[in-house]
Automatic annotation (TrEMBL):
Assigned protein family: Belongs to the SorC transcriptional regulatory family.
Domain of life the protein comes from: Bacteria
A GO term, aspect molecular function: sigma factor activity
UniProt protein name: Sugar-binding transcriptional regulator
Domain Sugar-binding: 62-317
Keywords recorded for this protein, A-Z: DNA-binding, Transcription, Transcription regulation
């Protein structure tokens, strides 16, 4: 009998291990290497799966509806991977932590020695870093995708890059430049500085890129922690069709970059500059992220998306309506 109180991430990992072992016939040592797990942990997951009755004619999971949403996302977008976590009604922080934990596990399954990992700031990225608990150390280099903003811990991308490197056992290279320059000319000058250019060159070819997906409409949006924007300009952005913030760039509803002055002063890589990354992973949670996620998906900026169930339900409903109208 399945335990419906089973932790989502444990159940998901258990499901993956059981499928690989019993349906695909992989050895436990092969699974351990594939998922970056210890052999003993793979053995424990299989034993626990047996005890819970998950090994039958097919692999059974208490989160089948979430797996169906994941398949729907992959089938209707350019995503190659999607992870949908349960939504806890009325508890935004729990939802954020669950999404962060799922993103951390996805990174641990995909990271390899020698990889470069590029990240943005943001609450969801910070939650992901908090849940990185590797079974072993990885020889990785973690770099920022944007310039830095000091202040709140989750906006300081250098701080997050250092913490991620520490948790994975690797090293970090930091950007010693502000996120917003005073002018486009100053932005160009800063990006050509040797220390900044070196980091951005690594980020362009990163093996894994972890990015938040920001909202620009709510007053509590983290975008306004990056750069205080007058109320009149906020209304103007919404009026121009701006729906999201991605790599600190303002993104239109259809996925294109907004022709807005703030974008021209960013000391950051543009979304088009990370298309060469092996896996661009977006992470988001909460109803305020529905339109931003739709915009980023419309722009085909991601390979993988980690999001909570209520948010993805609204995203799929909204995308279905737009496709119907089109």
């Amino acid at each position: 009998m399945l335990d419906h109180n089973l932790d989502f991430e444990t159940a998901r990992q258990m499901h993956t291990v059981l499928v690989l072992h019993f349906l695909e016939g992989q050895k436990q040592s092969e699974i351990a290497q594939k998922l970056n797990l210890s052999h003993s942990k793979v053995n424990r997951l299989i034993a626990q799966g047996r005890k819970l009755g998950m090994i039958k004619i097919h692999i059974e999971t208490p989160f089948q509806r979430l797996m169906e949403r994941e398949r729907e996302l992959v089938e209707t977008t350019s995503l190659s991977t999607a992870v949908v976590t349960p939504t806890v009604s009325g508890n935004a922080d729990t939802n954020l932590q669950q999404v962060g934990k799922a993103a951390a596990n996805l990174i641990l399954e995909n990271v390899r020695d020698g990889d470069v990992i590029a990240i943005t700031g943001g609450k969801a990225v910070s939650a992901t870093v908090d849940h990185l608990f590797a079974d072993r150390s990885f020889n990785v280099t973690v770099v920022p995708l944007t310039g830095g903003v000091q202040g709140k811990f989750y906006t300081d991308v250098n701080h997050l890059a250092s913490r991620m490197a520490e948790r994975l056992g690797g090293k970090s290279m930091l950007i010693h430049a502000p996120l917003f320059a005073e002018s486009k000319a100053q932005r160009d000058m800063l990006k050509e500085m040797t220390t900044v250019k070196e980091v951005f060159d690594l980020a362009r070819g990163a093996d894994l890129a972890l990015t938040g997906i920001g909202s620009i409409e709510p007053s509590g949006s983290s975008y306004y922690d990056l750069n205080p924007v007058p109320e009149a300009d906020r209304k103007m952005m919404v009026g121009l069709g701006v729906s999201a913030e991605f790599l600190a760039h303002l993104i239109l509803e259809k996925g294109g970059l907004a022709n807005f002055e703030l974008n021209s002063r960013l000391v950051a890589l543009a979304p088009s500059e990370i298309t060469g990354c092996r896996n661009v992973i977006g992470v988001a949670a909460g109803p305020q992220k529905v339109q931003p996620v739709q915009a980023v998906l419309n722009g085909n900026y991601l390979n993988s998306l980690i999001v909570d169930e209520s948010t993805v339900n609204a995203v799929l409903e909204g995308m279905g309506k737009s496709q119907h109208v089109a």
